[in-house]
UniProtKB/TrEMBL annotation:
Pfam family, one: Acetyltransf_CG
High-level lineage: Eukaryota, Amoebozoa, Evosea, Eumycetozoa, Dictyostelia
Source organism per UniProt: Heterostelium pallidum (strain ATCC 26659 / Pp 5 / PN500) (Cellular slime mold)
Residue span, N-acetyltransferase domain: 8-95
Gene3D superfamilies: 3.40.630.30
Protein name, UniProt field: N-acetyltransferase domain-containing protein
InterPro entries for the chain: Acyl_CoA_acyltransferase, Gcn5-rel_NAT, GNAT_YJDJ
PANTHER family per UniProt: PROTEIN NATD1 (PTHR31435)
Length: 95
């Protein structure tokens, strides 16, 4: 799935999305208040689940958070329960 790493699109004030080869779209949705992002939902189409797509979206989103020195709230259970434990260096920005 590394072919997708550079294809994540940040749809400002809405989500990070990734259009898959079959045309389906995976996305990580958020709400934003000033410099704080609440990531509340990750969706990956059934055909692409278990292939690392959610991780690619999360990595892109969290890199954006780091680059912009923003704060983040992880309301999405995938991010808080699965992604963050594998990426503890990001915990300092977790709200």
């Amino acid at each position: 799935m590394s072919q997708y790493k550079d294809k994540v699109v940040h749809n400002k004030d809405k989500n990070f999305s990734l259009t898959l080869e079959n045309g389906e779209v995976a996305h990580l949705d958020y709400t934003r208040r000033l410099n704080e992002f609440d990531f509340y939902h990750t969706f990956v189409p059934v055909s692409a689940r278990g292939k690392g797509i959610a991780e690619i979206l999360a990595d892109s989103a969290m890199n954006y958070i780091r680059e912009t020195e923003s704060r983040v709230i992880l309301s999405c259970s995938y991010l808080s329960d699965r992604w963050l434990p594998k990426n503890p260096a990001y915990a300092i920005k977790s709200g």
